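Residues determine shape. Next comes a sample protein:
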Amino acid sequence: MSPGAGRVVRPVRFLVLGDSLAFGTGATRAEHTLGARLTRILTDAGHAVELHVLAVPGATSLELAAQVQRAPAADVALLVIGANDLTRQVPPERSAAALGAAVRGLRDRGTAVLVVPTPDLSSVAWVPPAFRAVVAGICDALRARQTRAAEAAGAVVAPVAAELTRRFATDPTLFSADRFHPSSAGYALVADALAPHLLQLAAGAEDDAA
């Protein structure tokens, strides 16, 4: 009998935490949301998956602690946060500190964490062209703080901002009707960008569980 014969591998327990982007606001169907799309990607790669979405539309980094506290035990967590920190003017140092604390809370439980920090909001419709460079700079500055805090706490930060910004800026169909959140097509693009990073974390988690 081969060494792995008869072994029962439990599902990869997958958490999705954060804000409306993590929740899937703007998608026309539940199966088009980020969590659902990434679950299918994991399943197609041969993983059994148990998905829990605890993201809350409108959440800032300051509200991550409550989501982490409610979260069940998990192998992998996706954490998408930052847009509301900017729109609600959360001080960048508080935003980064709260993100770092949330990552540490998850890592202390043995959860691998993939962070998607603040997107570039300069391409959304309500930003006047004359202010787009300023908005992009503010987003970049917060993203850099978030990245340092998240990596110091043990997370992997997905380096997808530049490519996604370029695509969203040039293709209005990637936005939903509110011109702020992604459309179903936008979530498909984001999921594809995150897939390699999530698959790597899930493979490590499954090996640890074996």
